[in-house]
Design goal:
With about 450 residues, the protein is mostly beta strands. The chain is about 0% helix and about 55% strand. The chain folds into two domains: about 350 residues, 7 Propeller (Methylamine Dehydrogenase, Chain H), CATH 2.130.10.150; about 90 residues, Immunoglobulins (Immunoglobulin-like), CATH 2.60.40.10. It is globular.
């Protein structure tokens, strides 16, 4: 929620840069802010209804904006969405007047999970595939980490006072930290109580990320340095840094053990966003140098990252996507989320948008001109900034208004061979059908000449 507030403030000053043709842009109309999205590009956040109240919403390209309502009070927020389209957030409750966490689905509507509050760090932080909801509630003054499950209801995780649940996985594990009696990292599993995961010898440890392999990542401090670290199967490992002395913070961990965060680079007092994997080591994203502020925004399971930089405290933010193979590119939005399809949720001068990688279709003929009766193979290649669409999706080969064949893609390639084209010139095109994430796209026309 804090990051989202920051990015809302810079949307109106953001200008679309060159390179916008890398994405197709879909406007999310009539919403105040967007917070999160799932693998299918469904988006949650908050809208203002006709009565001026703030309500949680769920949006998709196919259904548009859906007001999720409240638990009877006036206000609600959508904070997390899973791949099944379940939504978690918080809502005021009527007539009691307090704030509760909720879980919404199309089948059940909005379900009250228990008292949370919006104050002092309370709220929903995450939602996994099985519908477990994590966050922090405020029983008195200080926040405490919680989990809600369908089997056991609302549970305090036992992380202590001023504690926060920061990530969960599809196995029901939770990591977070406590900042009241020091600064400590914790792990909770359904089969056991909370356990400390402080890095040995550290003065402060924070766990912020967890994947479905039950690997966790975070950062720890000593007297004058901070280090990224991972934990897996009972073993700790310190991540490398971009320079010495070490000033590294971890923000994200994906399902392949890849890590993203920031680290101070040699010759620059300010931190640089980095990517780390066991194969590549630590890699500086090489954003513009000597920035006032820069940060990692997101990391998906493709190894794709989002990051931003700001030259001075009054400068506009610049947003980028990055891959190890493709390098760094400006993106036409103030980004807040990234999914595994490479879609980016963010804002620009028009409001909130979903940017989908634009699929480019290239069509080639194996023989042009050809003779009547000769076999000609047409090859369509479909790709984008994030690579090809999923195998099995369709490309239709067309001769003007006539469909010649529909062929499934394999690694972004579809081929069609024909020997029955009549004498003359044939306007051949290949049309990619699109899917829930990617828009349809058509190749340029290949004028296939068939001689007698």
């Amino acid at each position: 929620m804090q990051r989202c507030t920051l990015f809302v403030a810079v949307i109106l000053a953001f200008a679309l840069p060159a390179g916008a043709q890398r994405y197709t842009s879909t406007t999310i109309p009539n919403v105040i802010s967007a917070t999160a999205m799932n693998r299918s590009g469904q988006v949650v956040g908050v809208l203002q209804n006709s009565n001026g109240f703030i309500h949680a919403f769920l949006w998709s390209k196919s259904t548009g904006v859906q007001d999720l309502g409240t638990l009877g009070g006036k206000h609600s927020t959508g904070d997390a969405v899973n791949d099944s389209g379940q939504v978690a957030g918080v809502s005021t409750v009527y007539p009691q007047g307090y704030v509760s966490a909720f879980l919404w689905s199309a089948a059940t509507g909005m379900q009250d999970l228990g008292f949370v509050t919006w104050a002092n760090g309370g709220g929903v932080k995450g939602l996994n595939a099985q519908g477990d909801v994590i966050g922090s509630y405020v029983p008195q003054v200080l926040a405490q980490a919680f989990i809600w499950t369908a089997a056991n209801g609302f549970q305090d995780l036992g992380f202590g006072a001023n504690s926060f649940a920061l990530a969960t996985n599809d196995n029901g594990w939770v990591v977070g930290d406590e900042n009241y009696l020091g600064c400590h990292a914790y792990l909770w599993k359904p089969s056991s109580h909370a356990m400390s995961l402080d890095y040995p010898g550290s003065t402060c440890s924070n766990l912020v990320a967890l994947n479905n392999l039950n690997e966790a990542a975070g950062y720890y401090t000593t007297s004058n340095e901070s280090f990224g670290y991972t934990w897996s199967n009972g073993k700790f490992a310190t991540l490398p840094s971009l320079s010495v002395p070490n000033q590294t913070e971890v923000d994200f961990l994906n399902s392949y053990g890849q890590v993203a965060g920031v680290s101070r680079a040699a010759g620059d007092a300010n931190p640089h966003p980095f990517f780390y994997s066991a194969k590549s080591g630590i890699v500086d994203l090489s954003l513009p140098p000597n920035q006032y502020r820069s940060r990692a925004v997101a990391l998906n399971n493709r190894g794709e990252m989002l990051a931003y930089s700001q030259k001075t405290s009054s400068s506009n933010y610049q947003f980028f996507d990055w891959t190890l193979r493709g390098g760094l590119h400006r993106i036409p939005a103030s980004a807040v989320a990234l999914n595994d399809a490479g879609q980016i949720l963010g804002g620009n001068n028009s409001g909130w948008v979903l940017l989908s990688p634009a699929m480019q279709v290239k069509l080639k003929s194996s023989l042009n001109p050809s003779k009547s009766g000769q076999s000609v193979t047409f090859t369509a290649t479909v790709t984008s900034i994030v690579g090809a669409p999923p195998d099995g999706e369709n490309v239709t080969f067309q001769d003007g208004g006539t469909t010649l064949a529909t062929v499934s893609l394999t690694k972004g390639v579809a081929k069609f061979t024909i020997s029955s084209l009549s004498v003359g010139t044939h306007p051949i095109k290949a049309a990619y059908a699109g899917d829930v994430n990617y828009d349809p796209s058509v190749s340029k026309t290949v004028s296939q000449v068939v001689n007698p």
